[in-house]
D-amino peptidase (Cytobacillus purgationiresistens), 274 residues
Amino acid sequence: MKLYVSVDMEGITGLADYTHVDSSKHNYERGRQIMTDEANYVIAEAFEKGCQEVLVNDSHSKMNNLLIEKLHPETQLITGDVKPYSMVQGLDSSFSGAMFVGYHARASMKGVMSHSMIFGVRQMYINDVAVGEMGFNAYVAGYHGVPVLMVAGDDQAALEAERLIPNVTTAVVKETITRSAVKSLTPVKAGELLKEKTALALKNKDLVKPLVPPDQPTLRIEFANYGQAEWAALMPGAEIEENTTIVRFQAKDILEAYRAMLVMIELAMRTTFC
């Protein structure tokens, strides 16, 4: 069995605010060590339970956070920026399952450091379904016929996963108090939970079906201000919905929608606020 593991940072044990996930801040080095340890708990348990190959994709910010020299020696790591498929780079139909570790809730929802790709996004939709990073990534996995077996993160990420993916296993390592405060397990206890939940997810893998995306999906992204929408709409094929900050793009499939989303948010980040 081949397992794909996408590792974000905001949902990692004990990480409560931007000082833990921003590489320029004082808590970041602690955060990336805990992130690496958390990935290792999942990887080691996957190998223990019979996986022959585990591919890990660093999925936070510049995507160079995981300490490769401290990762399980039998894993392979995708690291660095720019990636054509970002948080799901390297995922294809050869994998039997995927796991999302360190994930968070989507933009405009309760949850520690909740957001969708950038903080200028209010909502993202595939047709009429509101999705965040988790949902979009699960759709890409589903396009390849790969089920998302486990999501680990805060309690709100777990709720989002359970609403989206029937029979998914969730591992709650911290509970949201506010968007920048949590009640967290210690790393040791979180490690025990992650090993237990990884084993359970692999045992129950046949109960989870891939989240199949719609054919020719319509991508709609609502931005925080009109300037961001104007920048995003410069992408060929994109247009602003009248009297809104929503930019629409008609895609031929979910892969094109995903890459369009990446381009639109990169453009939107060029907006200034003065």
